[in-house]
Amino acid sequence: MQRRELFSFLSASIKDAAREKPEQVLVVRPPYFKEVVDGEIDAFDIECQNCEGLCATSCQEHIIVIGEDKTPSLDFSKSGCTYCDDCATACTPNVLNIEDKKLINAAIVIDKTKCMSWEGVMCFSCKDPCLEDAIDFKAMFTPTIDASKCTACGFCMSRCPSYAIVVEEVA
Ligand code: SF4
Ligand code: SF4
Ligand code: SF4
What's the whole-model pTM score? Predict the structure, then answer.
């Protein structure tokens, strides 16, 4: 076994032991809602209470989950958002509207402490699913996400074997 392969094997073994799928705690809304201005009540807290989750049912990527508060949020643990408009079209109470379409309000970042590539192990699992080519590898290692290109679609997250890609609030 070559030195690099040995190092990769050992490092991957260590990662295997440490690998744990984190729970997404941040509430990320589908990308079609109207911003609430001061004094207004959020439409999610009114209209969604009497809805059977039409948006979640319509999402072919199955990334919309209806929470205990009966409002929808995105879960990137299995797939990502194609910005297909289906959830907005399905939302007859008009909480989600195509006219309010915007990028998903979240920052997708790589946790360097969990990423195998930052440990010297060759891995490009997140690169292929990124249609925006937003993940920069320097000399084939140390990937970072270029926020100016990233649409926060979340497709890279479920492809990372180390669960190193996380969703954070926009700074
Ligand atoms: S379809 Fe609209 S009203 Fe129904 S849960 Fe989804 S966002 Fe709320
Ligand atoms: S835009 Fe399409 S893929 Fe994205 S959350 Fe809505 S239905 Fe799902
Ligand atoms: S979340 Fe950003 S980096 Fe990840 S696949 Fe989508 S555009 Fe690319």
Answer: 0.88
Distance in angstroms (rounded) separating the CA atoms of residues 167 and 28: 9
Give nearest CA residue, ligand 3 atom 5: 130
Ligand 3 center to 168 CA (angstroms)? 13
Question: Among 159, 61, 145, which residue's Cα sits nearest to residue 108?
Answer: 145
Going by alpha carbons, the residue nearest to atom 6 of ligand 1 is 55
pLDDT (tens, 9 = 90+) of the chain, 171 residues, equals 454 444 444 445 545 545 677 888 899 999 999 999 888 899 999 999 999 999 999 999 999 999 999 999 999 999 999 999 999 999 999 999 999 999 999 999 999 999 999 999 999 999 999 999 999 999 999 999 999 999 999 999 999 999 999 999 998
User: What residue ranges line ligand 2, CB within 6 angstroms?
Assistant: 30, 58-59, 61, 63-64, 81-87
